[in-house]
Amino acid sequence: xxxxxxxxxxxxxxxxxxxxxxxxxxxxxxxxxxxxxxxxxxxxxxxxxxxxxxxxxxxxxxxxxxxxxxxxxxxxxxxxxxxxxxxxxxxxxxxxxxxxxxxxxxxxxxxxxxxxxxxxxxxxxxxxxxxxxxxxxxxxxxxxxxxxxxxxxxxxxxxxxxxxxxxxxxxxxxxxxxxxxxxxxxxxxxxxxxxxxxxxxxxxxxxxxxxxxxxxxxxxxxxxxxxxxxxxxxxxxxxxxxxxxxxxxxxxxxxxxxxxxxxxxxxxxxxxxxxxxxxxxxxxxxxxxxxxxxxxxxxxxxxxxxxxxxxxxxxxxxxxxxxxxxxxxxxxxxxxxxxxxxxxxxxxxxxxxxxxxxxxxxxxxxxxxxxxxxxxxxxxxxxxxxxxxxxxxxxxxxxxxxxxxxxxxxxxxxxxxxxxxxxxxxxxxxxxxxxxxxxxxxxxxxxxxxxxxxxxxxxxxxxxxxxxxxxxxxxxxxxxxxxxxxxxxxxxxxxxxxxxxxxxxxxxxxxxxxxxxxxxxxxxxxxxxxxxxx
Length: 534
Ligand code: ME8
Known about the structure:
The structure is a single chain. This protein is an alpha/beta fold. 43% of the residues are buried. The protein has 21 helices and 17 strands. It binds ligand ME8. The site of ligand ME8 has 20 residues, from β1, α1, α8 and β11.
């Protein structure tokens, strides 16, 4: 039976058009899911939208729309972007869907029954933008949100609270027993020092001052706090507390299923502190990992609509293709740390890795096989000399470490490792000097082995890069004349190749003109939002 793997992205607020920052998390989740599937896991990938809350209600009102009309419009934009980026999510949960509403109401009833929520009064500070309550100390003398810096509002309202104290020991035990629960691990210290050590207040889990939320069945003037509502998407989408809960049984309840939530640093607290407590209260297991990815930064800080420094994925995909954009996101930004988008970094990364290292290697290899062997590459069964042996060893090691890195979510390392082997293969051409071997009829076997080893490196790269290069890997396989049986991860157990009939095709990634493209990118980034995201 294959092992199971359940991966999720945050469900985004449909407050405006999604930018490259949102695209980043979804692309990474998609790459991980495809990499795991390649390695034989049975996978399930969820993304969606967090459609309730005061912020959405206010946004809709300012546009003269009902909240539902407003979120329906933005949802279309998210769906179109996921399609453009080749995102293969299995489900798209929207928190206004009846299936989700029903799960949330049932969960709230359970909390009430178990005595995990109680009615009291909330008095304090609220940031509408972050949909978060803050204490007096947290907002400081200036009364601003510690997360986004916007002014907070003083609120006093009757509210239900979730008792945190009862679940704190289990949370601390979880932190201790599963050291990778919060990855990268430095984030755990941050959570303990900033939120648990100063004393964890009970969490306010309902609101009464606006209506755009899921009503509490037992007390209709309350709507469920948007974060409790939102976090439950990870189980409601699987059918938890619904008639058909087979996906929930398979991907949540089965201990053989690994559960990973990808989140940005901004929402770590809700996922690592409150979410496990809610689950414990429901008698459900915690996810295996909350992976905190970094933020996509611009030169002047975090990319965000309010700063007006947003880059959209659409024009980039249109000009450079979906593979190039996916590759940039996975390779330039070390997964788990912040990364930058600048026109220079973008063009340099695509030129160095995709045009030169990969594209040019394929082009040279296929051309040489055409020239020296009329396109018919004899089989490659073994290494003839030390140079062959070193390249073969690097290929084997890359396949092995790819598996390990993907399993431990070291995604950037997994993919950079492939580039290292391709660099080595490019140097191998210079060392072996096939043009010289071709002049000596006594060196036919060595020439064939050299071409064969280049094809082996390219085949390995094509297979392992296929989760990122969703269109170009196919073209690489085609040019190498590689049968489908040799395009799988399992087939890489044998790195050698049978006889192949290669055929030159269009260059995979044409080299970009640095000056022309950086200027083009700068112009797109300066374009008005509506145009850039159109
Ligand atoms: O917080 N770089 O939604 P949200 C990288 N609805 N990732 C970015 C980014 C950037 N510049 N900007 C956004 C919410 N993200 C809640 C989540 S989950 C139960 C509820 C990504 O629309 C990143 O993953 O503000 C971040 O955590 C998420 O979008 C926040 O999206």
